[in-house]
């Protein structure tokens, strides 16, 4: 994966915030937003799964002009006058200083989440994403994500069913959040995936924490294990691509579940290595 320091941001452009909507309930600890921006350039083109960079103006530490962060493009369309409209999924982040124990705001996420319609942003890109959609519509797609990791999968599902007109292979989405209310794009406030539940090849499986108040892990592994036979058949099928996105915990939960399904850690790691060797395993962790 390309380092932020290696990104070419020499040709920045202006974007205008069109809307900024919180998509987690006000009662949730997680502030996650669906932000739509209009780009001031008609020739902007991207592939599904690509990212765009937000350049937060400085000055910053070490004399840096901008603080840069990448956001996966969750969707896009055109305005009546041909300008690109991009949808981004942004989580307001904080971090704890490991030495002082003090809580600090994430610079880019808080800056982005605080923008209001009409505000101007400095952006750059697009940048090639970690994921790609197979050309063959008979290919199976197994998607596993946590939190804002669902953003590229939202773009995937909309692309294959709305823009490409359907998909013949199996499309399975396993997604987790702390509570049902925090299921991004899958909660009562905004459920974009409900538009595809009638598609014969698409199924989505949700997982939450059994004890969210105690910070118990999200039961993503249990959700996968409950569908063990189908999941195992898919990862053994040479026509299956696996996509994993979200916080690094998603990889740990997936490995735990798949080791049980495979019968041992060794068997699963061997199968996983084969998927990677065949370029059919793609992941985006943060």
Based on the model shown, name its key terms.
286 residues, 6-stranded antiparallel beta barrel, Elongation Factor Tu (Ef-tu), domain 3, Rossmann fold, 5-stranded parallel sheet, alpha/beta
In short:
The protein has helices spanning 107-113, 151-163, 220-225, 228-236, 249-262, 265-277, and strands at 13-22, 32-39, 51-57, 66-78, 84-91, 94-96, 103-105, 120-127, 140-146, 171-176, 202-207, 240-246, 281-285.
Order of helices and strands: EEEEEEEHEEHEEHHEHHE
Number of helices: 6
- The average pLDDT is 87
| Helix/strand structural class | alpha/beta
Characterize the structure shown.
By secondary structure, the protein is α/β, with parallel strands linked by helices. The protein has two domains: 4-127, Elongation Factor Tu (Ef-tu), domain 3; 140-285, Nucleotide-binding domain of ferredoxin-NADP reductase (FNR) module (Rossmann fold, 3-Layer(aba) Sandwich). It is built from six helices and 13 strands. The chain has helices at 107-113, 151-163, 220-225, 228-236, 249-262, 265-277, and strands spanning 13-22, 32-39, 51-57, 66-78, 84-91, 94-96, 103-105, 120-127, 140-146, 171-176, 202-207, 240-246, 281-285. The strands form three sheets. The chain has a six-stranded antiparallel beta barrel. A five-stranded parallel sheet has the order 11-10-9-12-13, with helices on both faces. A two-stranded antiparallel sheet has the order 6-7. It is globular. The N and C termini lie close together (11 Å).
